[in-house]
Amino acid sequence: MRIVNEILVHNEKFVADKEFKQFETSKLPDKKLVILSCMDTRLVELLPRAMNIRNGDVKFVKSAGAIVAHPFGSIMRSLLVAVYELGADEICVVGHHDCGMSKLDADSFLSKAVERGITEETLETVKYSGIDLDQWLKGFDKVEDSVRDSVEQIKNHPLLAKGIPVHGFVIDPATGKLDLLVNGYDE
Hints:
Blueprint: H1 3-16, E1 33-38, H2 43-50, E2 58-63, H3 74-84, E3 90-96, H4 106-115, H5 120-128, H6 133-136, H7 143-155, E4 166-171, E5 178-182
Parallel strand pairs: 1-2, 1-3, 3-4
Antiparallel strand pairs: 4-5
């Protein structure tokens, strides 16, 4: 059975058995917090447990590496929507050790894209359109520096009200241990 079919079979039973009832909550975060974290599969259940977060407590925004790549991109917009439209009063950026973004290599990435059917012509068109793929596909050397950079971008955004604490953490995906890098209350 293909994955979408598996999902639909499971979902039909999930709804019929009313399993959704245990997850009922409002759309507003009870802890008035929005968290930007990496999309790493190891963090799906580990991060909320390590931070004592339950369904309904926070808004989650995920991106590769917990990176705010553009000050007016969708990640920053989502954080601002969480603050102004959904009642979040604080922001946390949570990166993690052993992150795939620390190993991201543009040449390797593009080679894999070509293997999966992206043509060299398409890559050339993107490059001639003014997109610097080497820069766009750039990872980071140290997760701590990346988290601090994302915190600074968020904290200094012209549309973020002053006084909104922006915190930075790094989590160990093996143990769940959190290290506080930036305490937004001290800023």
